[in-house]
Design brief:
Number of helices of chain A: 10
Largest interface: B-C, 58 and 43 residues
Helix content of chain A: 25-40%
Chains: A alpha/beta, B mainly alpha, C mainly alpha
Shape of chain B: globular
Number of strands of chain A: 12
Largest sheet of chain A: 8 strands, mixed
Number of helices of chain B: 15
Order of helices and strands of chain B: HHHHHHHHHHHHHHH
Structural class of chain A: alpha/beta
Strand content of chain A: 25-35%
Oligomer: heterotrimer
Distance between the termini of chain B: 11 Å
Chain lengths: ~325, ~350, ~280
C-alpha cells in the first residue's frame, strides 16, 4: 500500500518575468519500505516536487491541481499548523550541502534536541540522551563528544549523518532525500547511501531519493521515476528502467551516464536545452529534443502508456 | 575563555600605542612654537620660555616622548588654560555626562533599528520595509547638529513638548542628585528621587534621539540584510523542514545569526557616537567632555583639546575590545579563527 | 567596458531609477552654484544691513535675512563653493593617496603592507571626527587644514579598498600574463591592475562624498576652519542656532537643508553608480 501518493500534481510559480509552469500532472507513489528514485537534469522539477510535498514552497508557488496524500492524510488540504506538526515527525527531508544546511552557531546535539523537543513526547531532561542516541543510530563514533560540536568542526559526511539523525529522530514514515550525497567524496557517498538504505528498510520508511546521478539511483532504488521539464516521463522498476528504457529521454540519459569502461567518444549528450517553462509549451515537453518526434506529438494530449503493471511511460512512441 | 580575552587584550595594545604616539605628535610636532601654544594667546616671551622648560619642549623629540608617556601613566594631561585645573580632573568630572548621553543614544538606536530591521526583513516589500529603507536613506543625509536643532525647533519651540535645551537639568528648579556614577538619571534612581529622575530623563530625550538617529541607519540596514540572508539560508530551510515553530526559527535560528554582522557594524557606530557627541553637546548645552573640548578649541586651550582627543581614543579602543570579546561569545567560529 | 556600453548602461540605470537622475540633476545645480555662485546670488553675501536683520522669508529675500541683515539665499548659494570644494578636495586627495598606498601595499605585500596597515589601523583607532578636531587644532585653524584633516580621516577607507582590490587581482590570469610578458612590477600595477579597480573605487568615492561634507560642516559648526563672515553652510547653521528659541527658524533651516540636500544627492548618486556597476551588491 502506498504510503505517499502524489496524484496529478501541477505547480506554477508567479514571477516577475511570467508564470513558470514548474510541474504538470506529476503522479508518483511510494510504498512502505520502498526507495523510489527521482532522476532528471537540473531544473526538471525534482526539488519542486519534494518541496511541494513538504509544504516548503515559497509564496510565489501556486498548486493548480492535484492531491498529495501521506498515510491517508491530505497534505494539500491541511492547515499550515497541522502541516508543521507533520514535518519532522511523520515526514522528513534531508538536503544537499549538509554543512550549510545546519545552523552554524548552534551545537549539533542541540539542533537534534530542538526537533525532539518539538515532536517527541520526552521530558526535557531526557532530550540530551535521546539526541546522543540519534547520533549513535547513524553510526557517528563517539556521539557524546560529537553532540557538543559545531557544524564547522565536522566533515561534510559527518554533517550529513547529523542531518539524517535529525530527520529520523522521530522515525518518520516518509523521508525525502534531495541530492544527499552531491558534493561528498565517493567513499562517503557510499557510506551515506548505505545508511539511508539500512534505515529505510529497518523502519519500513518510504523514501524518495532525488538525484541527478542515474548510477546512484540504479544502485539504491527499488523503482525509478524519470522527470523532464516538470513532467514525469517514465516510472519503472530499477532493472527494467536500466535495461529496457521506454522513453527516448531515459535512453539518452543512460547513454550520457559514464560506466566504468566507458570511452569518452561513446558518451553522448542530450541535444538541445530544457524548454522555457514560462512560454507556451507543447503537450510533450521533450518534443523539441526528441529524435522520434512526430507532428502528432505536438497536437494532442500526451497519453500514459502502461507497458506492464509496474512500468508506465508518457510517450506516444515508446521504445 | 580567559585565554581568548587575554589574546584580544593583547591585540588592543598596538592600537593604544599608536594612539599615544599620534596624540604625542599632535601636541609636539605643531607648526611654529609648541611652547607658545601651550602658554596661551595671552602669554609674553618670559612665560613662553618658562613653559618651554617646564614642559621639556626644548629636549629632543624621543626624550620628550618618554616624558610624555611618563606623564600619561601618572595621569598628568597638563593644565587647562580656561579652567585652570588639571585637564584630567576636568575630563573625569564631565565624562559621565557624555557617557550618559551616548549610552541613551545607543540604546535608542539599537532599540529601534534592530526590531525595525527584523520586521522589515520578515515582510519584504511591505509598508514597514519601505518605511525602514526610507528612514535609513534619509537619516543618513542629515548632519547630526542640524537634526538636533531641528528637533529643538519643532519639539521645544513649536510643540512645547520638550523642556528648554539648557543642559542636563534645569538647575533652578531641580538640584542634581548626589554623585555616585555621575549620570543624573542613574544617580537619581539610586536615591529614589523620582522628580529629578523624570526631569533629567526629559532633558535627555531630545539630545539622545538626535544623536542616535544617524546611528540608526547602518544598524537597521545591516539587521535587515543579515536577517534576509538568514531567513533565506539553507539552515532555516532545514529548520522549517523539521517542523520547528515559527518563533523559534525566527529568534534562535535566524536572529542569532544576525548578531555577528550587527556587532561588526558597532565599531563604526561607536566612532560616530563619540565624535558627534561633541556636536550634540554643543547644540543642547550639555555639560560633557564634548562641550568642554569645543570651548577649549575656541580658546586655543591646547592641552585640554589634546587631553580630550586622547581620552576619546582610549575609550574607543576599549569599546572596540568589548565588541570583539562579545563577538567571540556569540559566534563560535570567531573563537577558532583566533 | 567600452564607452558606448557604459553610456547605454548609464542611460538604463538612470532611466530605471528616477531618483538617481533627480539626484544627479540637483548636484549639477549645486555645482553651478559652486562655480558661479557670486554671479548667481541676488545680493552680495557679505553686505550687512542692520535695519533688515532677521527678516522672515519674503519675495525680496526668499530665505530671509540673518542676524546681520545679510540675504540668506545669496549666502547659501555662495557657500556651495566652500562646502563642496572642501569635500571634493579632501575626497580627491584621499582617493589618490589611498589608491597609491593601498595598491603598493596590496601588490608588494611584506613590509610595505605591514607599515601601511599599521598607519591605517592607527588612524582607525580614533573616533574619526575627534581625530579631525585634534589635527585641525594642531595644524592651525584654516580651511586648508580642514581639508587635510578630512583627507587623513578618509584615507583608511580608500587605502583598504585599494589594497584588497589589488590583492585579489594580483594573482589573476591577465596579471600573470603581463608579468610574464616582461613588464616590471610597477608597470603591471599601473597599466593593468589600477585601471581595473578604478570604477569600484569611484563608486566608493561618491558614497564617501556625503560623509566628507558632513565632517567638514561639523568642524565648521564648532568653530574650526571657516571664520565669519565667510559664508559656509556649517557656520551659517551655527550662527542661526541661537535664534531658534525665539522662533526665527530661517537662519539655521536653509543652510541646514542645503547640507541635507547635497549629502542626500551624493548618497543617491553613489547608490546609483554602485547599482550600475554591480546590481548584485544592492542591499
Amino acid at each position: 500500500m502506498a504510503q505517499l501518493e502524489i496524484d496529478n500534481l501541477s505547480v506554477e510559480f508567479r514571477t516577475r518575468h511570467g508564470v513558470v509552469r514548474a510541474l504538470e500532472s506529476v503522479t508518483l507513489s511510494v510504498a512502505r519500505g520502498e526507495i523510489v528514485g527521482v532522476v532528471g537534469e537540473s531544473g526538471s522539477g525534482k526539488s519542486v516536487t519534494a518541496y511541494t510535498v513538504m509544504g516548503l514552497n515559497d509564496e510565489a508557488a501556486e498548486i493548480t491541481s492535484g492531491r498529495i496524500t501521506m498515510g491517508g492524510i491530505d497534505l494539500l488540504a491541511a492547515r499550515p499548523e497541522a502541516l508543521r506538526e507533520l514535518r519532522g515527525r511523520e515526514m522528513a527531508m534531508i538536503f544537499q550541502s549538509p554543512r550549510t544546511a545546519l545552523n552554524p552557531i548552534r551545537k549539533v546535539g542541540k539542533q537534534i534536541e530542538d526537533v525532539l523537543l518539538e515532536h517527541a513526547n520526552l521530558p526535557r531532561r531526557n532530550l540530551k540522551k535521546a539526541a546522543i542516541a540519534a547520533l549513535a543510530r547513524v553510526r557517528i563514533p563517539d556521539p557524546e563528544r560529537r553532540a557538543e560540536a559545531y557544524p564547522f568542526e565536522l566533515s561534510g559526511g559527518m554533517c550529513q549523518r547529523v542531518m539524517i539523525a535529525m530527520a529520523l529522530a522521530c522515525t518518520p514514515s516518509v523521508l525525502i532525500a534531495d541530492e544527499p550525497t552531491t558534493g561528498l567524496d565517493v567513499t562517503t557517498q557510499a557510506v551515506i547511501m548505505d545508511l539511508i538504505r539500512d534505515m529505510s528498510r529497518s523502519t519500513r520508511m518510504s523514501t524518495l531519493l532525488i538525484t541527478h546521478d542515474l548510477g546512484l539511483a540504479g544502485e539504491y532504488c527499488d523503482r525509478i521515476a524519470v522527470m523532464h521539464a516538470g513532467h514525469i516521463v517514465e516510472i519503472a522498476a530499477t532493472e527494467t528502467l536500466l535495461d529496457h528504457p521506454a522513453h527516448p529521454y531515459t535512453r539518452q540519459l543512460l547513454a550520457a551516464t559514464p560506466v566504468p569502461d566507458s570511452r569518452l567518444y561513446s558518451l553522448t549528450s542530450i541535444p538541445g536545452q530544457l524548454p522555457d517553462l514560462r512560454s507556451a509549451l507543447p503537450p510533450c515537453r521533450f518534443s523539441g529534443r526528441c529524435e522520434r518526434h512526430q507532428p502528432i506529438c505536438d497536437e494532442r494530449e500526451l497519453p500514459w502508456a502502461q507497458l506492464s503493471p509496474a512500468h508506465i511511460v508518457r510517450c506516444r512512441f515508446p521504445l | 575563555m580567559l585565554m581568548m580575552t587575554l589574546k584580544r587584550l593583547m591585540m588592543a595594545v598596538p592600537s593604544l600605542i599608536g594612539v599615544v604616539i599620534v596624540t604625542f605628535l599632535l601636541t609636539r610636532a605643531l607648526p611654529g612654537d609648541p611652547a607658545a601654544y601651550f602658554a596661551g594667546p595671552a602669554a609674553n616671551a618670559a612665560s613662553i620660555a618658562n613653559i618651554r622648560t617646564t614642559l621639556g619642549l626644548d629636549r629632543p623629540l624621543p626624550e620628550q616622548f618618554v616624558y610624555y608617556v611618563n606623564d600619561l601613566l601618572h595621569g598628568n594631561l597638563g593644565h587647562s588654560l580656561t579652567t585652570g585645573q588639571p585637564v584630567l580632573t576636568d575630563l573625569i568630572e564631565r565624562l559621565p555626562a557624555s557617557l550618559e548621553l551616548s549610552g541613551f543614544a545607543l540604546l535608542f538606536a539599537v532599540g529601534v533599528a534592530i526590531p525595525l530591521g527584523v520586521w522589515a526583513a520578515t515582510r519584504v516589500n511591505g509598508p514597514v520595509d519601505h518605511a525602514c529603507r526610507a528612514l535609513v536613506t534619509i537619516s543618513a543625509a542629515f548632519p547630526t547638529f542640524f537634526i538636533g536643532l531641528l528637533f529643538v525647533y519643532v519639539f521645544y519651540f513649536l510643540l512645547g513638548w520638550a523642556p528648554e535645551p539648557l543642559g542636563r537639568l534645569n538647575e533652578i528648579v531641580f538640584s542634581a542628585p548626589p554623585r555616585v556614577t555621575g549620570a543624573y538619571t542613574i544617580d537619581a534612581l539610586i536615591v529614589g528621587d523620582w522628580r529629578v529622575f523624570r526631569a533629567a530623563l526629559a532633558q535627555l530625550v531630545l539630545p539622545a534621539v538626535s544623536l542616535g538617529l544617524f546611528a540608526l541607519a547602518p544598524i537597521a540596514r545591516i539587521t535587515r540584510a543579515a536577517m534576509l540572508e538568514a531567513l533565506g539560508s539553507d539552515f532555516v530551510r532545514t529548520a522549517r523542514a523539521s517542523g520547528l515553530p515559527a518563533g523559534k526559527i525566527l529568534i534562535i535560528y535566524a536572529f542569532r545569526n544576525v548578531l555577528l554582522p550587527v556587532s561588526s557594524v558597532l565599531g563604526m557606530v561607536f566612532s560616530f557616537l563619540l565624535g558627534s557627541n561633541v556636536l550634540i553637546e554643543q547644540v543642547f548645552g550639555w555639560q560633557g567632555v564634548g562641550a568642554y573640548a569645543v570651548s577649549a578649541v575656541i580658546a586655543s586651550d591646547y592641552a585640554a583639546v589634546q587631553g580630550f582627543v586622547l581620552m576619546m581614543a582610549i575609550l574607543y579602543v576599549l569599546l572596540n575590545l568589548a565588541v570583539d570579546i562579545f563577538a567571540t561569545l556569540i559566534d563560535p567560529r570567531v573563537r577558532f579563527e583566533g | 567596458m567600452s564607452l558606448i556600453v557604459l553610456a547605454r548602461n548609464t542611460g538604463y540605470a538612470f532611466g530605471e531609477n528616477r531618483l538617481t537622475l533627480a539626484a544627479a540633476v540637483i548636484l549639477a545645480l549645486l555645482a553651478l552654484c559652486a562655480l558661479f555662485g557670486p554671479s548667481l546670488a541676488p545680493f552680495d553675501p557679505l553686505t550687512t544691513a542692520a535695519a533688515a536683520k532677521l527678516a522672515p522669508p519674503s519675495t525680496l529675500h526668499p530665505f530671509g535675512t540673518d542676524a546681520l541683515g545679510r540675504d540668506i539665499l545669496s549666502r547659501v548659494i555662495v557657500a556651495a563653493r566652500l562646502d563642496l570644494g572642501m569635500a571634493i578636495s579632501a575626497v580627491a586627495l584621499s582617493f589618490l593617496v589611498g589608491l597609491a598606498l593601498g595598491s603598493l601595499a596590496g601588490y608588494f605585500g611584506g613590509w610595505t603592507d605591514r607599515i601601511v596597515g599599521r598607519v591605517m589601523d592607527t588612524i582607525m583607532a580614533f573616533p574619526l571626527f575627534v581625530l579631525a578636531m585634534g589635527i585641525v587644532v594642531a595644524l592651525g585653524n584654516s580651511v586648508l587644514n580642514i581639508i587635510i584633516a578630512t583627507m587623513i580621516i578618509n584615507l583608511p577607507f580608500y587605502c583598504r579598498f585599494a589594497r584588497s582590490a589589488v590583492n585579489v587581482r594580483r594573482d589573476l590570469g591577465y596579471v600573470e600574463a603581463a608579468r610574464m610578458g616582461g613588464n616590471g612590477s610597477l608597470m603591471v600595477l599601473l597599466n593593468h591592475i589600477v585601471p581595473n579597480i578604478l570604477p569600484p573605487m569611484m563608486v566608493q568615492a561618491s558614497l564617501n562624498m556625503g560623509w566628507a561634507i558632513l565632517n567638514a560642516a561639523g568642524l565648521s559648526f564648532i568653530g574650526l576652519g571657516v571664520r565669519p563672515p565667510t559664508p559656509e553652510w556649517g557656520i551659517m547653521v551655527s550662527e542661526g542656532a541661537s535664534y531658534i528659541i525665539s522662533g526665527e527658524w530661517w537662519a539655521f533651516m536653509f543652510p541646514g537643508a542645503a547640507l541635507v540636500l547635497a549629502v542626500f544627492c551624493f548618497n543617491m548618486l553613489g547608490d546609483g553608480l554602485r547599482d550600475l556597476l554591480d546590481p548584485r551588491k544592492r542591499v
